[in-house]
Q: What sequence folds into this?
């Protein structure tokens, strides 16, 4: 049997996921955008070593899928991806901007901060998110790296980015709630929606190393009206307790939309579940519990996992990579992130034994 290319493999996965949320099979926009996003690297054979070691996923696949459950009852398919082998970080955006009516004004405003010419640091320079909902035009978002010029300049880049985007009070508020522990809290991503509707977002993400649940509860307090019990339950169901979570960090994000001057409208907590379970069977059981807690249809997640992979869940860890809880006035819900595993299945860990005293 012929070996698939990276684009063929991930394209088939995306086709099935879009069908799951009600896409018409004649709508080829998701598949086309995926190919444009991957760039020339998408034609590489999966029989060969990866042409580029991407940090999008643990096995270096430059694509990650997610299934977003919204409190409106809708579901969306999202693709986080990194272009491979393109002449510039913005090549993909330049190619699709006209067709999809992208507004890159805000990206242009902060581009020299986060996309400096010459050498850069950190695991990436520019990632893209494709958001697909049945019957609607795709939306596109970009992720920028606050540590692109090194960790020491991250705070300055985020502060200046907020200032240029005319939300100068945001940095002080975010820092006060999400960065109180020195080097254990740090900016991870600065993200922009590439449209200009009233709910178009400026987002900032903070990584919390070795965090207790109380640390992310404090971070969530910046958004008015969030019940801290939601945060505690989320950590307890997915992580088995209140921390400290010493493996991969928990991540907070804040979304600023039109009219937000210093306080964001939404808060999200991202839990890297793959680091806190022995295998994906345990991960799925925990995620189903949190979906049931909020009355979401867990069968859709089962179908999505089947669309991505046919392997036994006990035989690896990381297919379910992380889970987010989205809270606030706009866009509340739960999102489950799924690895393509195009290149490798990460090995499962030993399950703990239920030892009895002698």
A:
């Amino acid at each position: 049997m012929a070996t698939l290319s990276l684009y063929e493999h991930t394209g088939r996965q995306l086709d099935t996921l879009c069908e799951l949320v009600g896409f018409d099979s004649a709508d080829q926009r998701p598949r086309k955008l995926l190919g444009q996003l991957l760039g020339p690297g998408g034609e590489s054979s999966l029989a060969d070593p990866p042409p580029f070691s991407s940090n999008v996923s643990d096995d270096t696949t430059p694509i990650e899928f997610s299934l977003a459950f919204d409190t409106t009852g809708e579901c969306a398919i999202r693709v986080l991806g990194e272009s491979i082998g393109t002449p510039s970080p913005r090549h993909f955006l330049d190619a699709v901007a006209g067709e999809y009516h992208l507004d890159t004004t805000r990206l242009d405003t902060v581009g020299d901060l986060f996309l400096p010419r010459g050498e850069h640091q950190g695991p990436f320079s520019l990632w893209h998110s494709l958001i697909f909902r049945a019957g609607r035009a795709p939306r596109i978002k970009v992720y920028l790296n606050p540590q692109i010029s090194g960790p020491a300049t991250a705070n300055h880049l985020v502060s200046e980015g907020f200032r240029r985007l005319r939300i100068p009070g945001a940095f002080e508020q975010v820092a006060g709630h999400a960065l109180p522990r020195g080097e254990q809290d740090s900016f991870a991503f600065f993200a922009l929606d590439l449209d200009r509707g009233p709910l178009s977002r400026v987002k900032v993400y903070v990584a919390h190393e070795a965090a207790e649940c109380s640390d992310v509860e404090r971070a969530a307090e910046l958004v008015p009206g969030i019940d801290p019990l939601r945060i505690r339950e989320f950590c307890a169901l997915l992580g088995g307790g209140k921390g400290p979570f010493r493996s991969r960090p928990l991540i907070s994000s804040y979304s600023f939309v039109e009219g937000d001057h210093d306080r964001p409208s939404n808060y999200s907590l991202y839990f890297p579940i793959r680091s806190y379970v022995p295998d994906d069977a345990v991960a799925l059981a925990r995620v189903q519990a949190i979906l049931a807690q909020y009355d979401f249809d867990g069968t859709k997640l089962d179908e999505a996992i089947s669309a991505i992979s046919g392997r036994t869940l006990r035989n690896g860890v990381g297919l379910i990579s992380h889970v987010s809880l989205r809270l606030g006035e706009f866009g509340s819900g739960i999102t489950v992130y799924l690895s393509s595993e195009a290149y490798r299945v990460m090995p499962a860990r030993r399950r703990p034994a239920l030892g009895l005293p002698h």
Summary: Residues 6-339 form one domain. The CA atoms of residues 120 and 148 lie 5 Å apart.
